[in-house]
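RECORD TYPE: inverse folding
INPUT: structure tokens
STRUCTURE:
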């Protein structure tokens, strides 16, 4: 019996001339891959669309960007326009002069969020404050992305003493109190920047942001990139051991080309997630600095400065505080949820 089983097993591995004939169409069809081969980015996009919370956060961000950058172009009021006789109006309330114009048949636009003590429309000021916060968040995140990616990739690629020295510098920078640096830079740069803005008409748009926000950008470029550098360094150190990097070195590619063409592109998912999560941090930093009076220059509004101004009449005009506070909460929550979704999508360990 045992000899019979051995003979059957031997016959199973015996090849005949028929086994080398071309496969038929039916046999080829059996080997067709059922799932279409797609790229990493297309697969990430498909998984992102399926996440309801992440897509809801993305839709909220789109609405916020439309609210901040498109709607003000069609709004009948400007952020610094003072309507005489329309001070301290409640939402959708008209002053006596405006009501008289309406009675005469004129078309007077309403004030959805009311007006402040100077007769300025609060709705347009909230929109412009949202624009300032978004600009600060995006610019600061871009600065952090550029500096942190370059610094972290260089440290991770070379390793050894270079990595040790560069990361010790990161450790020292991470101990510096960022708020103190922002305050000191705000006072140190105030006079030089005001002279620069006054002498150069091309910088008139930047002058509205004020020295304080310029100091925020400088502080982000000096201090806030350290977390990005640590993350990119760890990612590069794990990727540089792979075969395609070894092949690139063997073909004579210099370190600059290896980092730019191989290491950073393969770390792009982690970089995008980290940069996305950096945006709400920058927005929150700008908001509470503006709340303390260290933000944009008047009359340009900011969500933090609007909330600070609302404290003077919080008992009588509570809605002035609610509007900027709600917008700040929506922006930070949406960016955090969207960043968490991107992190889950780009992490291959979380694939289902």
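DESIGNED SEQUENCE:
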């Amino acid at each position: 019996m045992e000899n019979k089983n051995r003979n059957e097993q031997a016959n199973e591995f015996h090849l005949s001339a028929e086994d080398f004939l071309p496969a038929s169409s039916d046999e080829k069809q059996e080997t067709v891959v059922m799932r279409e081969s797609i790229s990493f980015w297309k697969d990430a996009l498909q998984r992102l669309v399926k996440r309801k919370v992440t897509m809801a956060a993305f839709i909220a961000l789109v609405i916020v960007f439309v609210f901040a950058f498109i709607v003000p172009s069609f709004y009948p009021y400007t952020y610094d326009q003072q309507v005489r006789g329309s001070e301290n109006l409640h939402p959708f309330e008209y002053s006596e002069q405006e009501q008289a114009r309406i009675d005469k048949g004129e078309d007077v636009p309403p004030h959805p969020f009311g007006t402040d003590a100077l007769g300025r429309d609060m709705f347009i000021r909230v929109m412009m404050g949202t624009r300032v916060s978004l600009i600060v968040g995006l610019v600061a995140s871009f600065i952090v992305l550029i500096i942190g990616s370059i610094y972290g990739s260089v440290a991770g690629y070379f390793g050894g003493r270079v990595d040790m020295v560069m990361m010790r510098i990161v450790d020292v920078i991470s101990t510096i109190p960022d708020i103190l640096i922002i305050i000191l830079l705000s006072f140190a740069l105030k006079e030089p920047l005001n002279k620069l803005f006054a002498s150069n008409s091309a910088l008139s748009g930047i002058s509205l942001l004020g020295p304080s926000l310029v100091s925020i950008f400088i502080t982000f470029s000096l201090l806030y990139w350290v977390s990005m550098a640590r993350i990119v360094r760890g990612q590069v150190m794990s990727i540089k051991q792979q075969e395609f990097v070894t092949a690139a070195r063997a073909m004579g590619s210099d370190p600059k080309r290896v980092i730019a063409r191989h290491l950073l592109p393969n770390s792009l998912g982690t970089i995008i997630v980290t940069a996305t999560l950096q945006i709400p941090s920058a927005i929150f930093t700008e908001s509470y600095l503006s709340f303390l009076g260290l933000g944009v220059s008047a009359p340009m509004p900011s969500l933090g400065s609007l909330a600070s101004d609302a404290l003077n009449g919080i008992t009588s005009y509570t809605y002035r505080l609610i509007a900027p506070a709600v917008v700040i909460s929506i922006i930070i929550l949406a960016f955090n949820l969207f960043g968490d979704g991107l992190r889950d999508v780009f992490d291959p360990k979380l694939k289902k």
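NOTES: Residues 122-158 form the longest helix (37 residues).
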